[in-house]
Amino acid sequence: MKNYRIKQISPNEYGIIRRLDRDAFEYNERDSDGDFHEIFADNIRRSPYYIPELDLIAVTDEGYYLGHAIFSKLPMGDNGEHIIWLHSLAVKHGENDNHTEKSYKYQRKGIGTALVTRGLEIATSLGYTGCMTCGHPDVYRKKMGFLDYRKLGISKDESVDDPDAAVHAIELIPGGFDKTSKLLSYTYYDFSLNEQGINPEKLKEALNKMLAVKTTRVDCQAKQLHGGTLGNVRLIAGTAVTSDGTKIPYKLVLKIQKKWERYGDPDSWRREYDLYASTFGDLFTSSLRWPQCYHAEISGDEWQIWMEYIEGVSGTDLTGEMYERAAEELGRFQGRLYAEHPEILKNLTNLSDADAMKRFYQHYRSWKKVYGYIRSGYCEIPKHLCEMIIGADENADETWSLVEKLPVVFCHRDFWVTNIFFTDGNIVLIDWDTSGWGYLGEDIISLIADEADVDHMVEYYHKCVPAYRKGFSEYVDITPIVDFYIRERIILHFGYRLVEWYLNAESDEEKTLQINTLQKIYEMRGK
I want to staple 467 with a disulfide (CB 3.0 to 4.6 A). Which of 53, 87, 243, 328 is the partner? Predict the structure, then answer.
């Protein structure tokens, strides 16, 4: 292929190149880690050794992206003044590529060689005198002229593992490595860890526990997952090298939380740390558990937890059967704790109290903006939905008095679809910062109504409540309790909230979603 040019990447092209890098490595013959390479270049760009002129892409005149190569400075006793390292070389993966038949649409067409060749030309013009890289010898030695690094008098320290003779070097001028120490070390990679706020020793400590072996060297890339208020949650992926030279790919999560004060629950910012630091995890079973913790520490107003990365079905991908199973397992978990009164729970002091939901309702009700809107003459929400919220509001005292007669159980308090993962037939539940005491059925309210599957809300309401009752009843006879007041609490907990979301909606589509959610809650009555 010749209908392309090689140029320096622009920031507005980072996104599409991330996907190209990911696909190129995820579908190659060696089954490399696409997640790692998707964010690899971003971390290089944040490093002190990044060379913008050597972040190159191959793109057609029509704007079709074909490949990517990124180099950086390689310190060899010279602060990176003379030698560069080719970090990543990716050529676009074709949908019909076939490794068995060696049939490729873009790869093995000279694009990768062209990228490296152009990179070395630019590096020479910038004053660099040599280049090194790691990869398949057939690619770099036979096609691009690299040599076994040892032939140029270069040695390596213990941080470099090279069992497959996959480390290569090339001089850009005669004697290109003479002004260096000629010692290759990967320890300079630690800048990527520190640059991202990741402590290499803490990462190794977490990996030693996770992998049950001692690691001598690790590399990593960080990918943002999500984070709550003042929270930072990242996927950390890479390769760990053990003392015997074994390379092990890994993925784990680093969650960092800074202090903040939640309304009515000021210590919730550190609750998840406190739970992980206790023996609370002993209460779980394989059917319902939380992610395993590999390292946890707190310092002043910030904590961090290194934990298991969960891959599974979650969010809007949950099926009706999964909703029902989640409700039943939740009931079983809460019923067992209620019946057994484990000593662990008695010793936990940082838990939310049973009146948290009631305070939440009162807080929203006090907002004149939402309270007054549904009672105004200019309200555009259908009248019967406003009357539903107002009616629940007028009967709130009676409802809460009935709810307060229900058993008080240990609640997750954020039991909604994004925090529920189905993996290997079991449930893993994340984000425990709001957990504490609540009245029977409280978590089912979130499962059914908190940004859930609107089209199936009524169906899931009629499936999940009985499933929850069934699980709880395995440990406690709750036959006398005829009503959990789920629908009433859904209206109290989400009614004003949905009105607020409606008023703050930035599109008609968002407004319609809130109206449809209220309508489904309305339809739960009398069935």
Answer: 328
Pairing of strands 83-91, 130-134: parallel
Query: pLDDT tens-digit profile of 230-250?
Result: 678 999 998 898 888 899 999
Say which CATH number the domain at 440 has: 3.90.1200.10
Structure tokens at 230: 């003042």
Given a cut of 80, is residue 363 above it in pLDDT? yes
Instruction: Identify the pLDDT of residue 191.
Output: 45
The mean pLDDT of 159-179, rounded to a whole number, is: 89
The Cβ of residue 418 has, within 10 Å, a number of other Cβ atoms equal to 15
Give the distance from CA 353 to its chain's centroid: 29
Whether residue 50 contacts residue 14, with contact meaning beta carbons closer than 8 Å, is answered with: no
Q: Is 153 helix (H, G, I), strand (E, B) or coil?
A: coil
Do 331 and 428 share a structural domain? Answer: yes
For the chain, how long is the longest CA-to-CA vector? 90
- The tokens for 476 are 């406690």
**Would you state the pLDDT for residue 308?**
97
Q: Write phi, then psi, for 462 (nearest 5 degrees).
A: -75, -15
Structural domain includes residue 194: no
- The pLDDT tens digits of the residues spanning 8-26 come to 999 999 999 998 988 888 7
How remote is the C-alpha of 121 from its chain's centroid? 39
Find the DSSP H helices in 450-485: 457-473
- What pLDDT is recorded for position 345? 93
- 122 pLDDT more than 90: yes
pLDDT band at 228 (very low <50, low <70, confident <90, very high): low
Domain count within the chain: 3
Structure tokens at 238: 């890479």
pLDDT at res. 501: 94
Residue 255 · residue 232 · CB < 8 Å: yes
- Report pTM: 0.68
Q: Are 408 and 354 in contact (CB under 8 A)?
A: yes
Alpha-carbon distance 102 to 127, whole Å? 38
> In a 10 Å sphere around its CB, with 0-12 CB exposed, 13-18 middle and 19+ buried, how is residue 111 labelled?
buried
Domain boundary among the residues 145, 164, 188 is at: 188
Q: What share of the chain is helix, strand, coil (3-state, %, to 5)?
A: 40, 25, 35
